[in-house]
Structures are given as structure tokens and as C-alpha cells.
């Protein structure tokens, strides 16, 4: 199975700059700067069907094309490494193993969009990943692959690493820009979208770590090659799936898009823990609705998972066994979101703690039928909040109501958790 993002990985340590170079690292940058126009690079990324790996799956080349070409003045590129979505740790694993693909991808992206200054916005706590990025920036600059007049092409780029103060909302791209500007990290209204009016009011592209780290291989090998990596038509490339929960091996695996859920669990995860049977999972971080046993053969790709009523999201898979109480699992996630609501808009600030309290009552065996109705209403209300945090928070609640209504009702009828409460 071809590895793109993990191709340069070494067991137990980060690849070195010399090793990355010796294995063809920065060859894509040399190729682009010596023979491709910025438009050529952008078109290659459009043709590759690369979709954003930060959660929403938006087509990357299309996003770049929204940046006004002829507007004078600065424009910015931001790499989003906030990664606070529960269940998600792929960007950390990637940067601890290899920061160079990201740096090379950022230079290529900046060249395509016409950016002279870029930022890596990285979560506090990701100290090793941040140190790797700083070291890679220094090494690439010393080698003439970053900084002024890169490889004598006349194109220049500086990259700064910014460590976040640490709130989940800082990963939302407009809140991130406020944080980077030194303001309170509230989301901004959209439109205008960042590609038109972003950081300091200038056109800005925000992309995820994994998205940008794919760019060198796409430029080096071409759009057709990238599309051919996926297992199903319409999908393109590989995906990092970071798995946790009740499987034998919890780790981050690079697999072709379109690999089925069952193949991941029975394959690299080594199956369920002894004595456990698969009940459900979240497929892409805590804001994605559950998949169940009926989805065992589902090819994991953005469109297929959406058609199954969930989202591929970040590829952060959390696996639950039969003895897991799904009310309790959902309550765990809602507790996180209620705490991380930025408080800017009323539906989310007041609604998420209310939903948390309802779930806590149901779990404790003091809930009523009316609470099921209230949960349903809140799935609807919270879709109209100011940013995507609140609808995302209600993803598992919506899944709970759709797939495990019987289990909720059992809590009400028996006046206790039928599975013995939170694990
Ligand atoms: C509450 C919230 C948190 C987010 N956190 C992250 C994050 O940690 N990393 C990330 O790449 N995208 C995150 N996103 C999505 C970003 O807003 C943005 O869509 C993404 O960085 C774009 O990159 P992509 O197009 O490469 O996927 C978050 C969105 C929301 C609503
Ligand atoms: S939905 Fe929540 S996180 Fe988003 S702006 Fe409103 S209060 Fe803040």
C-alpha cells in the first residue's frame, strides 16, 4: 500500500532534513519553481481532487482559486494545527515524524497563491511538533528552500510558528485569525470568506496540516497518480486515520481513501479488544454522528460517509464495544463542547449546557420522554448558531437519537443506566 504522508517515517524518531532530501524531498519545489507557473501548481491541485483534511473536506484547489489574483498588497497562508477535536491526533503524529512535507507543501501553496508570509498555528502542548517545525524552517532557510529568493527563482516566503493559547474554538478558521491578530478568539461572520478578507483584512487561505503535507507528492507525481491512490471512484489520495477506543492497536494509520471501516478495525487495528464486540464508532472526531455495525463494509470517504448520515471529518475514529452506554458516550462529548463554547452567541452558550444537563439526567435514570423531544428540538435549534461548533457538537446527539433511541428509552423505563453508567 503506497504511503504518501508516512513515506519518510523512521521508527521512533523524526526523519532528518538530510534523509528527507535524499529521498526526493523538496524535488517537487525544485520542479515547480523551475518550470511551473503559480497557475500550473494551482491547476494541478484542482485536478488532483484533494479535499481539505481539517474536517469539512472542501476542495483545496478550489479554495485557493477564490483568492483574488490581481489585488495588490499582502495575502496570507495559515496552516491550521490547532487539532483539539476529541479523538483526533493525526496532525501531531505527522509533525512528530516529519515536518518537512508540511514546510515544502506550504512553500508550494504560497507560490500558487502569491503569498509572501505564512503562519503555522499550532496547539499549545504540541511542543515536539512545534520544535520540529521551527527546526525544519531553519534548515530549509539555510538550504535556500525558504526565505528570500528561493532557489534563485525570485519567489520569497517567510513562515512563523504561532503557539495557540489553547481553546477548541481557535481551530475554527476565523476565530483562529482573531487569535493570531491578538484578539479574543470569536468566530467572524462569513461572508466575507477568508480567501477574500481574512487575516488583517487581507486575502487568506487556511489549510489543515495533512492537506498541505499532501501537496509535494501531488506536484511531484501529478494529479492522475494522486487520484489513483484512492480505492473508490471520485475519491483521491490517502487519509490518516487515527484510531482510539476498544481495539487492540490504537495508532494513526495512512490508508487509501475508500478503505472500509471493517478493514481498518480488523486490519491494522488488529480487531476488537479480547471479549469486546463492535457496537459503534465516531468516524471523524467527536463532532461526527455514529456509525454502527451496518456500516462495517462502508468505504470511508467524504461522500460515502455523508451518504450514510455521518461525516468523514478528521478521520479520528473512536471505537465503542457492546457494553458502552451510548448516552454516556454522548454525554462525555457534550461536556467537552459545552465547556469549549466561546460564548459569543446565545443558542450555543445556553443550549449546549442545557443539552448536557438533559443527557446527564437521562444517564442518571431521572429523564423523561419529554427530554427526548427536547433533545430533538435542540438538534434543530443549534443548527442555526453563529458558527459550526454548535451543529458539530450536536452531531453525536443527532446520531444517538437516530440510532440508539431504544437505548435512551431503556434509561427512562428502568430509571437507571442499563449498562452500568459511565466507563
Ligand atoms: C470549532 C471548530 C474547530 C476546528 N478545528 C480545526 C482544527 O483544529 N484543525 C483544522 O485543520 N481545522 C479545524 N476546523 C476547520 C477549519 O475551520 C477550516 O475549515 C480548516 O482548517 C480548513 O482546512 P482544510 O480546507 O485543509 O480542511 C475547525 C472548525 C470548527 C468549526
Ligand atoms: S456557535 Fe458557539 S462557538 Fe460558535 S460563535 Fe456561537 S457561542 Fe461561539
TrEMBL record:
<dbReference type="InterPro" id="IPR001949">
    <property type="entry name" value="NADH-UbQ_OxRdtase_51kDa_CS"/>
</dbReference>
<dbReference type="InterPro" id="IPR019554">
    <property type="entry name" value="Soluble_ligand-bd"/>
</dbReference>
<keyword id="KW-0004">4Fe-4S</keyword>
<comment type="similarity">
    <text>Belongs to the complex I 51 kDa subunit family.</text>
</comment>
<dbReference type="InterPro" id="IPR019575">
    <property type="entry name" value="Nuop51_4Fe4S-bd"/>
</dbReference>
<dbReference type="InterPro" id="IPR037225">
    <property type="entry name" value="Nuo51_FMN-bd_sf"/>
</dbReference>
<dbReference type="Pfam" id="PF01512">
    <property type="entry name" value="Complex1_51K"/>
</dbReference>
<dbReference type="InterPro" id="IPR011538">
    <property type="entry name" value="Nuo51_FMN-bd"/>
</dbReference>
<keyword id="KW-0408">Iron</keyword>
<dbReference type="Pfam" id="PF10531">
    <property type="entry name" value="SLBB"/>
</dbReference>
<feature type="domain" description="NADH-ubiquinone oxidoreductase 51kDa subunit iron-sulphur binding">
    <location>
        <begin position="327"/>
        <end position="372"/>
    </location>
</feature>
<keyword id="KW-0479">Metal-binding</keyword>
<dbReference type="Pfam" id="PF10589">
    <property type="entry name" value="NADH_4Fe-4S"/>
</dbReference>
<protein>
    <submittedName>
        <fullName>NADH-quinone oxidoreductase subunit F</fullName>
    </submittedName>
</protein>
<keyword id="KW-0411">Iron-sulfur</keyword>
<dbReference type="InterPro" id="IPR037207">
    <property type="entry name" value="Nuop51_4Fe4S-bd_sf"/>
</dbReference>
Amino acid at each position: 500500500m503506497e504511503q504518501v504522508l508516512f513515506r519518510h517515517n523512521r521508527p521512533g524518531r523524526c526523519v532528518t532534513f538530510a534523509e528527507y532530501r535524499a529521498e526526493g524531498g523538496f524535488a517537487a519545489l525544485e520542479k515547480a519553481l523551475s518550470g511551473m507557473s503559480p497557475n500550473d501548481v494551482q491547476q494541478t491541485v484542482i485536478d488532483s481532487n484533494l479535499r481539505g483534511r481539517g474536517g469539512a473536506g472542501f476542495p483545496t484547489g478550489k479554495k485557493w482559486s477564490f483568492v483574488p489574483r490581481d489585488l495588490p498588497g499582502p495575502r496570507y497562508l495559515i496552516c491550521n494545527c490547532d487539532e483539539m477535536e476529541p479523538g483526533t491526533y493525526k496532525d501531531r503524529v505527522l509533525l512528530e515524524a516529519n515536518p518537512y512535507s508540511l514546510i515544502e507543501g506550504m512553500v508550494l501553496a504560497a507560490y500558487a497563491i502569491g503569498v509572501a508570509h505564512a503562519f503555522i498555528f499550532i496547539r499549545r502542548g504540541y511542543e515536539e511538533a512545534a520544535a520540529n517545525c521551527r527546526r525544519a524552517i531553519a534548515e530549509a532557510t539555510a538550504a535556500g528552500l525558504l526565505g528570500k529568493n528561493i532557489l534563485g527563482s525570485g519567489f520569497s516566503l517567510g513562515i512563523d510558528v504561532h503557539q495557540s493559547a489553547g481553546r477548541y474554538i481557535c481551530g475554527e478558521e476565523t476565530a483562529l485569525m482573531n487569535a493570531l491578530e491578538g484578539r479574543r478568539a470569536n468566530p467572524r461572520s462569513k461572508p466575507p470568506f477568508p480567501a477574500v478578507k481574512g487575516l488583517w483584512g487581507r486575502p487568506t487561505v487556511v489549510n489543515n496540516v495533512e492537506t498541505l503535507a499532501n501537496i509535494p507528492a501531488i506536484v511531484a507525481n501529478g494529479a492522475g497518480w494522486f487520484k489513483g491512490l484512492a480505492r473508490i471512484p471520485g475519491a483521491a489520495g490517502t487519509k490518516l486515520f487515527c484510531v482510539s477506543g476498544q481495539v487492540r492497536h490504537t495508532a494513526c494509520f495512512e490508508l487509501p481513501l475508500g478503505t472500509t471501516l471493517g478493514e481498518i478495525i480488523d486490519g491494522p487495528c488488529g480487531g476488537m479488544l479480547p471479549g469486546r464486540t463492535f457496537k459503534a464508532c465516531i468516524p471523524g472526531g467527536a463532532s461526527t454522528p455514529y456509525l454502527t455495525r451496518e456500516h462495517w463494509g462502508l468505504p470511508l470517504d467524504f461522500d460515502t460517509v455523508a451518504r450514510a448520515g455521518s461525516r468523514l471529518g478528521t478521520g479520528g475514529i473512536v471505537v465503542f464495544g457492546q457494553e458502552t452506554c451510548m448516552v454516556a458516550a454522548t454525554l462525555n462529548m457534550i461536556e467537552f463542547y459545552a465547556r469549549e463554547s466561546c460564548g459569543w452567541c446565545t443558542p450555543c452558550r445556553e443550549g449546549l449546557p442545557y443539552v448536557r444537563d438533559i443527557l446527564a439526567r437521562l444517564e442518571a435514570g431521572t429523564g423523561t420522554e419529554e427530554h427526548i423531544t427536547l433533545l430533538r428540538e435542540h438538534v434543530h435549534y443549534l443548527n442555526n448558531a453563529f458558527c459550526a461548533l454548535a451543529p458539530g457538537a450536536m452531531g453525536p446527539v443527532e446520531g444517538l437519537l437516530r440510532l440508539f433511541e431504544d437505548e435512551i428509552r431503556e434509561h427512562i423505563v428502568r430509571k437507571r443506566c442499563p449498562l452500568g453508567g459511565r466507563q
